[in-house]
Amino acid sequence: MNFYxxxxxxxxxxxxxxxxxxLAAKGPGIAGCNYLGxxxxxxxxxxxxxxxxxxxxTSILFDGIFVDLNYHVFGNSCLCESNQxxxxxxxxxxxxxxxxxxxxxxxxxxxWTQILACEACNGGTNSLDEMKGLKAFLDEHPxxxxxxxxxxxxxxxxxxxxxxxxxxxxxxxxxxxxxxTSFPQLEIGIEVSGKFLxxxxxxxxxxxxxxxxxxxxxxxxVISLVYLNDCTNDLIKTGIAPMTSKSTNYTLEKLKxxxxxxxxxxxxxxxKFRLSPASDPSDSKTICDLNIQKMxxxxxxxxxxxxxxxxxxxxxxxxxxxNGVGFFTSNMDxxxxxxxxxxxxxxATFNALxxxxxxxxxxxxxxxxxx
Length: 371
Known about the structure:
- The protein is an alpha/beta fold.
- Helices cover about 35% and strands about 15% of the residues.
- It is built from 12 helices and 9 strands.
- Strand 1 (about 30-35), helix 2 and strand 2 (about 60-65) form a beta-alpha-beta unit.
- Helix 5 (about 125-140) crosses helix 6, helix 7 crosses helix 9 and helix 11 (about 310-325) crosses helix 12.
- The relative contact order is 0.12.
């Protein structure tokens, strides 16, 4: 009888361990890789299927899905692509059968305030209506693992003074509650700008979001460093998200100092890094010009681009490990999938981030050494 009871005990422990591991596995994993699905054809590069992304990409991130005030879900992007092209790119991505997280939200923070106006006091009326439109979209495009909410910073992406929104945290929490109840299997993340956070927690203009209030109903948070600074001469050899700098206050060291003030749970926090170089914002360079493979093939054209080195990507990966649970990348489609840079592996800058996260120093790559 004792032997039989011991077997039952061991069995229960194994089941509990398995359940714990499954719960721990929830989320984008160590490395979320952004994939557009249509940009290579537009740029004249060989197409890259989502299934060809590195196995180390624990999830795929798809950007460009929004909802309007009439609760219509549509595809839109900063690249001025058509709605259908965005939707086709999503369907192409979902065919890879890999965990896929879709960026989703209202286009501006002012739209968010209209939707969330009094959700905490009216039972989530607007949220419930929006979920109907979202359900129709999810039914048409099955296989989406989770959503990443965008544009929730307080204030527009203009120079206008932000308008205070009393009860913003409570109303957003109600929205998240409704979304969780409507789609219990769907994981929900929220992305905010690192530049906004540095401003908000050093010299706040108005009160913002209480992260502690919404954290219990949010599966993960993403702090984007993709546009931390404009490209200037001082950042040519460090990239636009430097660890330290004498010319800008927007650095990873500064972000690290304010992170304890934000209350983002470390075990739910990701950092999104730019893989491609950046150029002076006043020029006409596009994503087709600003990519790793073109830097390697035409180095003279890229001498004024702000770009990271493999060493600085190692540092950024280490930063993500020390301050969060993983990292996200910008567009993998144009991250040298054919290894024209002749590095140790294709997708060299992604692998340098991963190396840094895992405590490994990447092998030098001659064509990516800044001179």
